[in-house]
Structure prediction request, 321 residues.
Amino acid sequence: MSAVLLRIRKYFMSKSVTVDAPGKINLTLEILGKRSDGYHDLRSVLVPVSLFETVTVCETDGGDVSCSISGDGVDTSELGKCPPEKNLAVRAALMMKDLCGTAKGCRISIVKRVPIGAGMGGGSADAAGTVEALRRLWMPAASRESLTGAAAALGSDVPAQLLGGAVVMEGRGERVRPVFGHGEKAAAPFWLVVVFPGFAVSTGRMYSLWTPDLTPDPEICKNAVRSVRNGDVREASRTVFNGLQNTVGRYYPETERFCLALRESGALSALLSGSGSAVFGLAESREHADAVRGRLPRDVWSRVVSTLPDGVMAAHGPLTP
Ligand code: C5P
Prediction:
């Protein structure tokens, strides 16, 4: 067989998995204090949304890991400047190689739909999607839960996004527990409008500028969990809280302006997601969310999304032996 035919045959026989890895919003983000390792202790109710990255991982025989990224509705031009060792998907693949001690490598292709530097967990979704795809290829006996500890080294949101579904996240992000028990799901999803003001915010910088502004109150988390379980968007809109909002708003007043624009457009409430720069407004229904979005300025990136009932990442690609 010619070398070219051999390469084509290898290509078609190579194992690949495609995973949809959702972005997230934080309904609540309480910062409980600064830790001695420089991180902050958090308590957050994090919910996946219907804006997702598509991560395809294809096993290769050489040990190398490579990654290509294209954007679907988001600008990925800045990512070209990011060295591979900083790419969270590449780091996730190297971690998985280490964990299973394989000499194999992989080619990762990502279609990005979650805005970059938006506090919506796009980069963490890429890492979580890569871990999940390689778990299916290389470690099918290992549960997703068993990998959350190792995934924490990749980034604070990765354990939550790997577990999938609505979670309460604690510690620096490494302690995650699902809001729903096995087989349970929300009475109804929440509909929301997400706005990305067009610039990235550095999470590390915002945490370094944060000053305590609230006495931690476990009721905030409890109420948010109850609202998600009951699908009660009115209760959620009374409960939402983000401890980074004032800090981010001081340095990036546009985030506050877009929260105001969302409220003035009829959203039940509006909040910064994570460390920003994206903000979201909660709505009563899909129609209400469409109406809110329709009243926003036309030139700003916005999407109507829903929370995902159990948020699981769906592998829909062929796993060819
Ligand atoms: O973990 P991740 O890479 O997402 O965090 C980015 C930065 O945000 C960290 O380097 C740290 O400065 C800050 N951070 C924090 N406490 C957390 C999560 C993040 O101080 N729980």
Q: What stands out?
A: The two ends are 21 Å apart (CA to CA). The chain has a mean pLDDT of 91.
